[in-house]
Amino acid sequence: MLLPYGILEMCGRQFWIEPTRYYDISQFTNRLLPSISKTILFNKVLLLNENNKGSQIKIGHPFLDGLFFQAKLVDNGLGSKVQIFKMKSKKKFRRRFGYRTKYARLHFDSILSIKSFKNFYLLTE
User: Fold this and answer.
1) Span 55-70, mean pLDDT?
2) Which residues does 90 contact at the CB level (< 8 Å), separation at least 6?
3) CA-based angle 104:57:24, to the nearest 5?
4) What is the C-alpha separation between 45 and 52, in angstroms, rounded?
5) DSSP bridge partners of 40
6) Torsion sign, CA atoms 46, 64, 44, 73
7) pLDDT confidence of 97, banded at 50, 70, 90?
8) Distance separating alpha carbons of residues 120 and 75, to the nearest angstrom
9) Residue 38 gets which letter from DSSP?
10) Are 29 and 75 in contact (CB under 8 A)?
């Protein structure tokens, strides 16, 4: 049995989004985001499956008009550390550095189909 889901475009990537789930999205911290526990609306919906049996699927060309995914920004954080080591043999060249990727944790609440909203932060990339 399939749950209601949608395919959403964020940060140049496509995500399979199901309501009431958490997603860690990288590359969000470079953009301006609202503070934690604010509601964000995403309008780049590529596909939407409304019922459990998969018989009502809407496909956008390229996006569906009037549909929004509602998410709440839960946390901003750092991912696990990535170590990079460069070495050239016989040249005595060794270089070691690392970095931690930044991410934003989003909790997707629901799929909305209303065009006018108040007190929401609309994210249009």
Assistant:
1) 84
2) none
3) 10
4) 18
5) 71, 121
6) negative
7) very high
8) 18
9) -
10) no
Q: Are strands 5-10 and 45-49 parallel, antiparallel or unpaired?
A: antiparallel
Distance CA 32, CA 55 (A): 38
Amino acid symbol at 50? E
Q: Which tens digits make up the pLDDT trace of 17-55?
A: 988 899 988 866 556 666 777 788 888 889 988 776 656
Query: Distance between CA atoms of 109 and 40, rounded to whole angstroms?
Result: 10
Contact 77, 89 (CB under 8 A): no
Q: Do β-strands 39-42 and 68-88 pair in parallel, antiparallel, or remain unpaired? A: antiparallel
Q: Comparing C-alpha atoms, which of 54, 71, 87 is closest to residue 8?
A: 71
In this prediction, residue 124 carries a pLDDT of: 47
CB neighbour list of residue 54: distance below 8 Å, 6 or more residues apart:
2
Task: Please tell me the pTM assigned to this model.
Answer: 0.71
Sequence length of the chain is 125
How many CB atoms are located within 10 Å of the residue 80 CB? 6
